[in-house]
Amino acid sequence: MTAVVALIVLLPFAGAAAGLLATRLGTRDLRTRDLRTGDLRTGDLRTRDVGARTERAVYRRAAWFAIAPGAVSAALTVWLAAALARGAGISEGRFWSGLLPGRAEGTLTVVETGSVPISLTLRADGLSVLAGILVVVVALAVQVYSVGYMRDEPRYPSYSAFVSLFTSAMLLVVYAGDLIVLYVGWEIMGLCSYLLIGHWWEDRANSRAAVKAFLVTRLGDVGFLFGIFVLGTAAGDFRIDAVLRADIPRGALVAATLLLLAGVAGKSAQVPLQTWLPDAMAGPTPISALIHAATMVAAGIFVVARLYPAFLAAPPTLDVLGVVAAVGMLGAALAALAQDDLKRVLAYSTISQLAYMAAALAAGSDRAAMFHLVSHGAFKALLFLCAGLVIHHVGSNLISHMGGLRTALPVTFWTMTIGFAALAGLPPASGFFSKDAVISAVEHGTGPAQPFVYASALLTVGVTGAYAARAWLRTFFGPARIEPLAEPPPGVAHVFDGREAPPSMLWPAGVLAVPALLLGLAGSAAGVEVEWGPAAVSLAVALLGAGIVYALWRAAPEQDPARLLGPFRVPCERAFYVDAAYAALIARPVLRLARGVVRADTRVVDGAVRGSGRATLGLSGLVRLAQNGNAQLYVTGLLAGLVLIAVAAVVLT
Amino acid sequence: MSWLPIALVGVPLLGVVVAAVPAVRDRAVAWGIVVSAVVLVLAVALAAAFDHARPADMQLQTDRPWIPGLGLRFHLGVDGVSLPLVVLTALLTFLCFVHLAGHPPAGGRPGALVVTLLVLEVGMIGTFLALDLLLFFVFFEVVLVPMYFVIALWGGAGRRAAAVKFILYTLLGSAVLLIGLLVVWTQAGTLDMVALAGRHGSGMARSAQILAFLAIGLGLAVKTPMWPLHTWLPDAHTEAPTVGSVLLAGVLLKMGSYGFARIAIPVLPEGAAALAPWLGAFAVVGIAYGSLACLAQRDLKRMIAYSSVGHMGFVLLGFASLTPVGLNGALFANVAHGLITGLLFFLAGAVKERYGTTDMVRLGGGMLRRLPYVGSLLTFACVASLGLPGLAGFWGEMLALLGAFRPAAGLSRPLFLVFMAVGGLGTVLTAAYFLVMLSRVTHGRAVETIPPPGSLEPPGPPLATAEGVREVLSEAGEGAEPVEPVATGAAVAALDREGAGQETARASAVVDDGRASATGAGAAGVGAADAGEMGRARRPFRDVTAHELAAWLPLVALIVLFGLWPKALLAVTTPAVQSLLGSGVAP
């Protein structure tokens, strides 16, 4: 079974390697042969023609390299899930043990380091298959969608290869059986995120966003690596099984989990490392759907669930996680309410929803967190793909440029409505069930921060309803506000002439709408019970938030319902000035320090070196004064010395 | 008794002698390729003959009396510590010659450069093979003179000052090193490294050990270089020609760190234990300081040079932890740094050759558009250098930090935890300066490089080659922007379209591409310009050449290999470092 797991991980990797190395293999021959045989006078025209044909061939080949391995991986994952469901593993008492009892683990090799060994271990169990299915399905949908979205994009081969590489890295995280192996996948995901955010690197702003995303997550990852060190050295082994089984002192456990939390906050865009995610929307929209909504940002939550016994044994860490989640979910939801960029609305909403999962973990329910992770992965990926369709049509990311699109984009309208319903937590969409699971977990939670987290979670439900309603109404209803843009700058997708996008883009959205709608029912069928009391309360709160926005919008459809925030609107739009604070407190001082170091290096450190050189020269200049070539001086010195010696000899003897 | 180590040192020496023959002198670079290829084959044979089941033992030894009156012996051999470095040296030297074949040195006199590089190779390989303290010192010193000439004769504008600084600074270090070695000799009575390492310091007083470690450590720290003894390095790197920079960063710096692993730590364990906190402190200061210095650099080559200070800081931190895992990390980081920084300097040289400058402001942006392959490879090398897991740069730094997490018994744990935390922040800063550099140089739009009026000759024949452009540029002086040769619109358009899609495909297709695009440029220009003129012309900014690819791809492949399969290196070094530290050292 581990061979299948290895295949699931390696197939997208092979697709990435092929996409990077082999998309142009052989196509050059075509061109040079044509040129050699062609007449020189017509060479110009023929090159262009052959070039266009070559580009089409390259594009087709790259699409195959991207989709085929992903499809096989998805099929193998389904097989793996079936095998695990049949399997009779040891009951570990985790939430998936009833449904997917099987498990498999295989070690390829053990690397001796001189201290704690690193084992190249893969493992499959219910948790990893649950996350694995989400990854392969969303990745496949995004790859298919990208074929249409990135049409006429000259760098499509590298784009799709990086998406494949990302898929492989994420699957490595999901199936890793060793913390260091997990860390390898974890960081490669970060690299792919960097490369894909900066896909349209002609625009400096995109490049800056990519760098910011990598550096902020990397800062968290340093803590993550140190957390792994603490766990690994305490357990004498980096294997996850061994770590969870080892008897680690409580102090070390708290330290380790807190350090791991830094990496989780970075990757999952939680307070205080959340600032990179809204900027990451500079990447192509399918990337936002895959990496920055469904999978990579959820990896932080997944890792906590993976190591959950360790976190449960460290209550202070869970308290910290709860406070972080409470602050993050409400703040991000308020920020989402004030954004004008549709993708940034969704980005802040992602931060807020990830905070829900974190709150569930903090309250002691990894089941609710994973349930919300999977359903959020489905509906948020759906929302992003639909946002991409809308942006494709309008040629702008700004909600103020949209409006009245319901008739022009009927398919998009219905799929996105499902997505927004799930986001707001309206039945029967999946979000209703998973959010209910989270809120009832938080309600039953213990710990000193519990009332605060619960209040924040309920308030956020209302704000979520409000911003979902605002985005939905402003996009699909009201007067059309389309202003044709002449030439979309890089970073904004191309404008299509047709009414709806091509089927390669509509189908993935349609397919993802199914789990977004029905996953909740499936979850409750699989044993997640709905607590109707809290569910009714949160539904009422969500409807209240949506209703206020609707009333405001109804009164004046031209105006932005975000005006209900009043004087808080600007701070919300700027996400409470956290970015500015970080720039002033961290980025600029570091740069100033760097310039200081360079100055000190030339003046002080190298100055000392050059100074010693000059001092030597100066000294030798002094000594040289004696060697002036005057023979009389030499003889005088000789005689003086003789006299001195003679006197000394007389005096001392 | 084995002939392989002798052959490894002897073949390049023989090559030097033969290179003096006039018939060979005319084809000196080809001769250099042949000789270094033989050495590379011998190094690979050495690795094959090496018994991988017992890498801790000294193998394939040659032990002959050298100066019997002084008890000096000609003692060569390899173990798991030195084997990777010997192969790395042979490989990098060979790649340098391959690169030279396509890109003759700017200072002319290729024959002299070949001879110099071969002498350099003798010294470098000899240093890693020597098992007698004074023999080690002799080889260590042999390296200085050819490197001085490489910088002073084939370097950039400020080469004289840089070369003098290099040789004086490192000679000063060597003098201190020699004193340390003599202290060991007088105290222990032998110069045999194997015997000395086997004793683990027994028979030497603690004070003498501390004194000897201080002297030897200072001498090696200059070479490594350790902060604050690093200031010769940026100047030397900035001025040295491409091959000089590659060997300087790829091999010469390793001689310093190898000395720590081979002599300072195993021979003088008590001295090491006493001074390790200091070594660690200077190492982490170097990590942070080097990274910060990189962040504010304007010059690409200088930035890469300062990045070496940071990376070698990780190597020294690994040594300072005095644990097997720390030493392992240091040796891994050593090899990885040689591969990655070698590649980075090759790329910086390629950039300089095309743009005529490495100043980031004058380079402008958009390299991924103008030079898709060079830009992509630069991105790859930077990502490898910032320590991304899955590439070679990660494992060394990770293991060094793990060593610092739990240092050897007797060392202060809180202190080393602080070191580890600073080192961890250093990795963030490392990522910061590399990504900022990539953002400035490879991203963005290429600066429109229409020559400013008056900086060029009045309208004359189009400048056909990059060399022509450089000549014009150097006449125009400092203020001028990098100039693209004046090409016809059709040719430029064709190249743009072609360049756009090429971003990432690498490997063998690339060689074809170079030729195809040259043909394409020629053909596209035919309609507009004089056929003869353009037929000879290469594309304005030529992307990778075949020689460059031949020199770079092995490095890329090894970076990926060691990144994905770190066991390839760790399996050789782990037993070796365990035996070097002795069994008494805590894990």
From TrEMBL, chain A:
Pfam families: Proton_antipo_M, Proton_antipo_N. It is a multi-pass membrane protein. This is NADH-quinone oxidoreductase subunit L. The chain crosses the membrane at residues 6-26, 62-85, 127-147, 159-177, 183-201, 213-236, 248-266, 287-308, 320-338, 345-365, 377-399, 411-433, 453-473, 506-526, 532-553, 633-652. It is an enzyme of class 1 (oxidoreductase). NCBIfam families: NDH_I_L. Its EC number is 1.6.5.-. It is found in: Endomembrane system; Membrane. GO terms for biological process: ATP synthesis coupled electron transport; electron transport coupled proton transport. Residues 112-159 form the NADH-Ubiquinone oxidoreductase (complex I) chain 5 N-terminal domain. It comes from Microbispora catharanthi. One of its GO terms (molecular function) is NADH dehydrogenase activity.
From TrEMBL, chain B:
Signal peptide: none annotated. The chain crosses the membrane at residues 29-50, 81-102, 122-154, 166-185, 205-222, 243-265, 271-292, 304-325, 331-351, 371-395, 415-436, 544-565. GO terms for molecular function: NADH dehydrogenase (ubiquinone) activity; NADH dehydrogenase activity; ubiquinone binding. Keywords: Membrane, Oxidoreductase, Transmembrane, Transmembrane helix. Its main location: membrane. Its EC number is 1.6.5.-. Belongs to the complex I subunit 4 family. This is NADH-quinone oxidoreductase subunit M.
